[in-house]
Q: What sequence folds into this?
């Protein structure tokens, strides 16, 4: 915000569908999203990439290779993640889960072949310790570009200002802002 001279007010939006409605109506001006061709094409314009989100592949210890039509457990932490996966990995079968714990449980039980979990979540939560049958597979990690979607109801100068600020922003500061405002849903269930 300091780089742009703009002040931001953050709003919690319950679902991606509601966010799309709010962007279209002009009730929300911008949001962090995964840039994907065709997403929100008439309701937003996309800034340059703000950061790259690393998704770590979590697999069963006894299965290191992914089949071509892998069953993928995913909790979208950014709008546009589902479209990103469908566009880039059309053979994969996506199972959208309400939280990361459910993704990990689906892989451990064999219902899914892999779960893609934000690296920042694994670092912060150290959640792998409760899943003795799971491990990470670095060769399957995915990097996804995160941008800011700006409502087309806003003047073009806002998009220009944000892109200029992105170019001048300190990467660590940007990471902190993105992570603070896009915390994934975390289940605190104890597993024995």
A:
């Amino acid at each position: 915000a300091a780089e742009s001279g703009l002040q931001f007010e953050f709003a919690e939006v319950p679902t991606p569908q509601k966010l799309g409605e709010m962007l279209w109506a002009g009730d929300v001006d911008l949001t962090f999203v995964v840039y994907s061709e065709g997403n929100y094409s008439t309701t937003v314009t996309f800034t340059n990439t703000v950061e790259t989100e690393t998704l770590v592949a979590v697999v069963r210890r006894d299965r290191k290779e992914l089949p071509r039509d892998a069953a993928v457990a995913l909790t979208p932490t950014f709008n546009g993640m589902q479209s990103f996966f469908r566009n880039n990995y059309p053979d994969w079968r996506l199972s959208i889960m309400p939280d990361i714990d459910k993704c990990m449980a689906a892989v451990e039980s064999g219902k899914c072949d892999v779960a893609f979990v934000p690296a920042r979540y694994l670092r912060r939560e150290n959640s792998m310790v409760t899943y003795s049958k799971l491990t990470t597979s670095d060769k399957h990690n995915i990097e996804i570009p995160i941008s800011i979607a700006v409502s087309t109801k806003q003047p073009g100068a806002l998009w220009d200002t944000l892109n200029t600020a992105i170019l001048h922003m300190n990467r660590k500061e940007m990471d902190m802002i993105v992570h603070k405002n896009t915390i994934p849903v975390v289940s605190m269930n104890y597993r024995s």
Observations:
- The beta strands are 30-34, 44-46, 51-60, 71-74, 93-96, 114-118, 134-136, 142-151.
- The CA atoms of residues 46 and 149 lie 5 Å apart.
- The chain has six helices and eight strands.
